[in-house]
Amino acid sequence: MPKLHDPLMIVTDLDGSLLDHHSYSWLPAQPWLNRLTRADVPLVVCSSKTAAEIVPLQRSLGIVGAPFIAENGAVVKLEGQVQAKSARSYDDICQVLQRLRDQHGFKFTGFSDVTEKEVAEWTGLTPHDATLARAREGSESVIWRDTTEQFTAFQQALAADSLELVQGGRFWHVMSQGSGKGAALEWLLTHYAHPTGQRYITIGLGDGPNDAPMLDKVDYAVVIKGYSKNSVELKREDKDRVFYSTGFGPEGWSEGLTHFIQD
Fold it and tell me: Which of 6, 48, 171, 257 has a CA 20 to 30 Å removed from the CA of 150?
């Protein structure tokens, strides 16, 4: 088991993991956040949230300047700059979606189709935070409103345009193929070394199916009990390095770190 003075990196999802699914509070995780800060352990956010949402959250969490992964891996920021980005721009993805809707009659609603007010109603975010959620760079969030048969056709049509669907806690996310959380983390780990030059020992925490690629890449994985109808399916076989929490959100987050980190 790793110790706090090891070259540790914590890679975490936000909604339903570090942040409570309903209130967006991280208060139960604060004692662990304080310990990580004192030990200079980097906390890397790996979220479906946009960069515009993550930066103010970093300020609130006291981790300004830490690298982060946004929009499920479509955007990676390191040293304050965009270092890796989806092959397709947000405008390009929205144009493809509109074309597919016109051609096939698919029924779905994306963030680009509605106002901040409607996004706030969907998510429980404030109108200001909903504006930040719409500041997208490399993916679109959609609510599917059609049949299962049409959904399969939608996936196939997206694949023909080199796009894919990733399931999040509340929405489906349309993004470039091969740009999920796992690929983004792999890129980050090759470009962001520990000050000693060592490769980081990584502990990942997430609660949704879209976290699975990230949880398969880290050294130790914490699957936080979540509200998704679909379970988190991991491909890794080292079950002794996977912990399933009994608590939801930040309670489960803290439970996972307590399980793996020897202090």
Answer: 48
Nearest C-alpha neighbor of 168 from the set 9, 21, 10: 21
In a domain, 1, yes or no: no
Number of H helices, E strands in the chain: 9, 12
pLDDT of residue 240: 96
Q: Please, is 262 exposed, middle or buried when counting C-beta atoms within 10 Å of its C-beta (0-12, 13-18, 19+)?
A: exposed
| Dihedrals phi, psi of 221, to nearest 5 degrees | -120, 135
Residue 129 is assigned to a structural domain of this protein: yes
Q: What domain range is 187 assigned to?
A: 8-85+180-260
Q: What is the pLDDT of residues 53-65, one digit of tens each?
A: 999 999 999 999 9
Alpha helices in the chain (DSSP H): 30-38, 51-61, 90-104, 116-123, 127-133, 148-160, 181-191, 212-217, 249-260
The number of domains in the chain is 2
pLDDT confidence bin for 108, thresholds 50/70/90 = very high
13 is catalytic: yes
Whether this model's pTM surpasses 0.85: yes
Among candidate residues 13, 15, 129, 211, the one labeled active-site is: 13
Query: Do 101 and 59 share a structural domain?
Result: no
* pLDDT at res. 229: 77
